[in-house]
Every structure is written in structure tokens, then in C-alpha cells.
Amino acid sequence: MRLREQIRRMPQTIFVLLTMPAMIALSIAAMPLPLYWIDSNYAEGIMSPFVLQIDPESAHTLLSAVATGAVTALSLTYSLVLLVFTLAAGNIGPRLLRRFTTEPVNQVTAGILGGTFLYSLVTIMMIREDFLPKITISVAGFLAILSVVQLIYFVRHVSTTVTIDDEIAAISRKLFKDIEELMDRDAKWDIAEDEHEYNYSIPAGKTGYVGHIDELEAVRRAKELGIAIRLAQPAGDYLLEGEKLLLTTRKVEDENEAKELAMLVNIEESRSDSRNVEFSINLLIEISLRALSPGVNDTYTARACVDSITYALSQPVREGLPTYRRCDDEENLRLVIPGLSLQAMMDTAFHPLRRASRDNIMMASAVALALDRLAAIASKDSLLLIRTHAELLMKTLELEKHPEEDLELVRRHLPSLS
Fold it and tell me: 109 and 136, same structural domain?
């Protein structure tokens, strides 16, 4: 198996452990080694005015205090993170926890505090009766100051993390950026309709959710085999081992080759943001549906989600979304990935919102206004799709037998259906 595949399939907990927090902590813990050499050569020379003038007993006390304070602050940091997780899962949505765990501020704070603790322990072990590494001890004091400053910043940061409006805005910005990158990346791959017949299949080697596919490698392999490949299920769908994973235009006779093609698709144990656009839309939908539930009843939060979705979809509605297909360098179709189209994005966003707003005229008006805004900038093809959603919204409300005055309020916000 290639090294890239091994890294991609590395358990997430191990991968996270070996990344930012651990690397920062280990880097800080290794600092006493070069500093000890500087101490041995320059502590009594030009660096003398800039180091602590301290005796061995006081140095032990200082380093012990720094180590104790650092590990206490580290415990406080993780306690606050767990509190944020609890509040976020209850008030915003549990699927945001994955994003919180990868928050750079949390990781940097844990790395600095853990590194300060390890640095102090290593420095204590370097103290001898005949030699006191004063520069190394002075740096421990600087790390203590840095830890306090970082802890203050961390507390301020986590206090804003659970502000729902800020989270909606952050998800919206990410969604808009992902759609923009998708449109720029896919524009050059847009080709004619797929006319291939996919009569053969390659089964999934494990059970889980369909994740990302190594597109460049899949195109290269398909060209070598003289076939076209189609992903049988869109990213995010659940598959059982043995179900159809890839569809091909010609049977792949070599079983090892077929297994390697199947391994190009990452099968994940849980849902993730490997398909960033759909995942972000689903996050906003989850927040809005949670806000509209009887236990929360926060229509304004749901309306904020609708506004964010409208902003994110504005560009593909205006310009259209390129076909998600991949060609080789000779412009022969080699890879088709279903599910990511403007209709799929609109359906993912507006069908749940329409159903959730059937008893809430205020929310239905917000959905109608969003459709009207999109219709004002939509291309001809997109306009037909928007009108379809507008018709479905009115049918849903009419079935609930709302007063005619309420229905007329929603109609005034809808785009023209003629």
C-alpha cells in the first residue's frame, strides 16, 4: 500500500496527537538542550546582565512553581474546552464538535502549556551543585509569562465560540469559500453529458460512509485501463461491505487492480466534512431545525441560517455549477462523481426548511424571501429550480390550512410563479 494511503487511513486520534499540540509541547521541551550549551559558554559573559541571578534552591522553587502552574492551567484549559463542547452540542449542534476539536487556538494553548510544564521538568533535571543554567531558567520565566497571556486569550476566545450568530457567520463564510473554490476548480473540467453505460461494478471493501476520492489517481488508473469510472453513491452516503462502490464501463479483470481502485475511495466510520459544501449546508440546516424545535423555538436563529444559505448559494445560482466530471489530458471522460449539483444543493437546503416552516409563517416568509432574492439574480436554468421550490412551499402551507391573510403574506415574498 502506498504511503499516502497509509497516512490517509491512520486513526484520527493518533494523527491529531502527533500534530499541533504535541509538536509544540515537544519543541518547547527540547529547548533546554541548546540553551544548556549557551549557558555553558556565555552565561557568565555578555549574557550575564540578562539572566536571573538566583541560587540553586530558589531555582528549584521557581521551576516547580512554573511546572505546577502550567499543568494546572492545562487542566483548566481542557475543562473549558469540555464545557464549550457541552454547550455547543446542546445549543448549536453536535456535529460542530469536530470543528471545535481542530480549532487552532485550543491546540496552540494546549501545546504552550504542556510545553512549559515539560520544559520546567527538563530544566530541573539539569541543575547541578557545581553548575546552574541561568539562561535556561530565565527562559522558563518567559514561558510562564507567555502561558498567562495565552490563557487569557484562550478564555476570551472560548467565550465567543458558543455565540450562535458568530458560528453561523463562520460556517457561512466557509461554505461560500468552498463553493467558490469548487466552481473555480471544476470550470475547466466541464464537458458534454455523460453518455457512457456503466454495466460493471466494484464492491466496497468495508462498511462506512463514502468519503473523498483520490481524483487524480483515479483518472490516471482509468486511463491506463481504458475505462470510465463513476462513483456509485455520492459522498456522505452509507455503504455496507460488498455493496456497489464504483461503476465502470468495462470489467476490471484483475482483482488486485479492482481492490486498489476501491481503495481510492476513503470509507469513513463516521460522517465528516470530506465533502465540505454539503457538510456545511447540513450544519446550517441542523442549526435551523434545532432552533425551530418546540423546545427551543428560536425563529430568528433559523432565519439567520436561511440568510447564510442564501448568501452561499448566490454565486452558483447566478453563474451555474460546473458538471462534476473529470477528464484525462486527452479530454476523454474518466471519472464521474454524482450528487454535487445545483439541484442537489438547493434540495438539501430548502426541502428541510420548507417542511420545518409549515407551521411557522414567520419562518415560511423568510424562506420565501430567500427564494425571491435568489430568483432576482438567477440564470434561466436556475430560475426554473427556484420556482419549483416556491410552488412546493405554497402547497405545503396550503395543506396546513393557514388563514388566507397569512398565506398572502408569504405570497408577497415569493418570486413570480408565472
Answer: yes
The residues near 381 (Cβ < 8 Å, ≥ 6 apart) are 320
Taking the C-alpha atoms of residue 223 and residue 225, their distance in angstroms, rounded to an integer, is 5
Whether residue 43 lies inside any domain: the answer is: yes
Global pTM exceeds 0.90:
no
Say what percent of the chain tops pLDDT 70.
Answer: 82
DSSP reduced 3-state for 335: strand
- CB–CB of 372/392 below 8 Å? no
The residue behind cell 464492491 is 203
Same domain as 68, residue 202 = no
Separation between Cα atoms, residue 107 and residue 120, nearest integer Å: 20
Residues 251 and 291 reside in one and the same domain: no
Q: What was the pLDDT predicted at 10?
A: 46
- Give 310-322 pLDDT, tens digit per residue: 988 888 888 776 6
Give the pLDDT of residue 3.
46
Place of cell 463516521: 270
Query: How many helices (H) and strands (E) would you count in the chain?
Result: 17, 8
Short-list 345, 351, 358, CA closest to 388:
351
Domain coverage including residue 256: 190-268
Q: What is the pLDDT of residues 321-370, one digit of tens each?
A: 665 677 777 778 888 877 567 887 888 888 999 998 888 888 999 999 99
What order do you get walking across the sheet with 265-268 strand by strand? 238-239, 208-213, 265-268
Residue 328 lies in a domain: no
